[in-house]
Amino acid sequence: MNNETESKSEPQANVSKAETDAAGQTKPSFDGMKNDQIPTNAENVNALLKYHFNTLLSEPTKYILLVTLSLYFTGFIIWHFYLAHYGVAGVGFLRVEYASAAFCFLFIFFSLSVPPYLFLTIFGRTAYSSGGLFNIHQWDNKTYAYTLMVWYFINYELIKLFLPASTLSITGFVITIILSLFFVLHVCFGSVLFVKAGYGRQFMWGKDVKLTEKQLRFQNSKLFKYGNVTTYTPLYFGLLTIVSLFFNSDIDKSFLFVTMGYWFLSSRQLGISLKDTWPKSGILLRFMICIGVFLSFLLYVNIFSITQFGKIPKGVGGGKPENVYLVFSSQHCGAAESMNLHKVNNLRSTNSIFGPVGIILKTENEITFINYSELNTPKVFTNGFRLIYTTNLAVTSISHTNSNPANPISTNIVDDTRPNVFYNSGGLAARQIRADLIDGIIYSR
User: Is the entire prediction scored with pTM above 0.85?
Assistant: First the structure.
């Protein structure tokens, strides 16, 4: 009897947790209930499905919202630092460019930081456990080779997509030619060894071809193992990847070093583990750690914004200025001339064309651009004035005249010109103009 009483009391407990709708009917509520307490009878199927649906979407929705806000904030910081480099501040917060800049930043960061860390980690462990670097032909683990080939492919696509106008320096070009020549010679030498070892006959007539004892001994010789080009081909591609990064004209060396060494600095290899330090830290130390991490993040984003963001085309989320010519009507030419824009002669129209300029950011109300004519200007002269110093004044008179005026004679005249000189050491400064003052924009490549 006690068991029956307890079994009958369970539905009443569930009903007590239920909600009542407008019609007076009870609707089951599963908030705070465990999985084994959720009713599964037919009348509560809809409520059960709704409960599981909300449970599945609650956590992913929070993470998606957090990631979206983080990406948007990162893009806002990138554009803020980038525009501040040209002297512009006060940009709006809600812009589509922020999201694209954040994705561009993350793609470049992971493409430059993850492959070298994985390669050096795998390569070092394999060399330590497989007999050292001089016995690389005996290594069974070829993961390092796959890592190098993937790194080469990622680097090729990265430069082609994000830095299409970049070139190699003269030193990098010479090193690339030397590596290519060594690779070609190694391939030729390896081909000779391939034929001498009997693999050429097996390639032509199949594996059932009998080889001589001399060919079998040659296959096990050190010369054949060290001359096998297939073992060292990934290393050649890895060296070409490093040369293409360090000698690229559009990649800043400080940004490259910081990015490639990021995971080494944040890993256990330096003896510092934030994962182990955080649980043992107090409130004050955790607060200091958060400040340090945030400031490090801002410093890195600042380096990226100043050194790399302006070299990436806007089509892939960058901030590279768009080369354009601005068309002004006759009544608005004064605004362009006051900004020292170079005027292009146009005899066929009453409008005037000024440029070339580089548009950094364009909104509905204003356009922010830089004037390329100031790119090579070392200094700017304004408000020049002239000083004349005279000494040894003498007064003379002219005789046999009705008037006797005094004519001063000046000697030792020193002519001195003192213009106000402003050195343009800070680089280009941006300009803003109202969009309604411009009649047209001519884009150029």
Answer: no
